[in-house]
Amino acid sequence: MPLNPADRGLLILTSLAGGDKHGYALMQDIKEFANVRLGPGSLYGALSRLEEEGLVEALPQDERRRPYKITEAGSKVLKAELAANASISRIGLGRLATHDT
Amino acid sequence: MRRQLFRVAMLFYPAGWRRRYGGELEQMILDFGAEDASLAGSARMLIDLTGSGLAVRARSYGTGTRIAVLACVCAAAAIAVDASYVTQSTSSGFPITPTSGFSLSANALLPLNVSEIHAPPSQFPNQFELPPQRVTVQFVPHSSRVVGVSGPPAETVLNPRTDKVISVRLKGRS
């Protein structure tokens, strides 16, 4: 199922929560922890939106690769989103367990 | 991915975005190609780049611009529909049966289609002294039903079954 921009943003923020990364490293990390391969266009489209919104910040360029870091606002947004998702997961799994028994 | 193809895909992005992220994006594709050359040059990646470019471009427009673009698209569509009606009317033998030399002009204006019939005096042998007469026939939008006729005193003969104008004659002179 194709990811919507919010999901892409969440994946990028989750990846950056583990440390600063440039585009390619982000893509590899996301592939590893979420088994989702973001294309370069999708990744940079989402990254630029997150930067506009002040959720990530570009660091000084290293050759042609520019690392990004999550900002304080980005961390708050990520925390809130993950908490909401966790709550949905908990409720959904609980209901499925009831359904199965 | 070939550099030329990459440049073409980059044209989908706004210029400012290209300046800011283009170099990094190209570098990422090079890194990508080092890992899997077939994937880096694939159609899937081209679609990803162009699709994302269009999304970024749409995002870069302000709300006002988006509304203006939408309004222009709607107006163009409405005019196209309107114009197609006029074209259809004229090309299918407009119900008015002008004699040769009669000219018919149609304006695709919303909300009414207004067609003007220019009757040069040469078509009215009795009215040589008059300037060209103009009769305006107003139609119900997108139909050939007549709302009204205005201009110099004129007499319209309608087909009673279809309400289509059969002929328009200037009155008051003989």
Overview of this protein structure:
The model of chain A has no long low-confidence stretch (mean pLDDT 90). By secondary structure, chain A is mainly alpha-helical. Chain A contains four helices and two strands, in the order H-H-H-E-E-H. Chain A has a two-stranded antiparallel ribbon. Chain A has helices at residues 5-17, 23-34, 40-52, 72-100; strands at residues 56-58, 68-70. With 174 residues, chain B is α+β, with helices and mostly antiparallel strands. A four-stranded antiparallel beta sheet of chain B has the order 1-2-3-4, with helices on one face. In chain B, helix 1 runs parallel beside helix 4. Chain B is elongated, with a radius of gyration of 29 Å. The model of chain B is unreliable at 81-133 and 170-174 (pLDDT under 50). At the A-B interface, helix 2 and helix 3 of A face helix 2 and helix 4 of B.
Structure summary:
Chain A has 101 residues and is mainly alpha-helical. Helix content of chain A is 66%, strand content 6%.
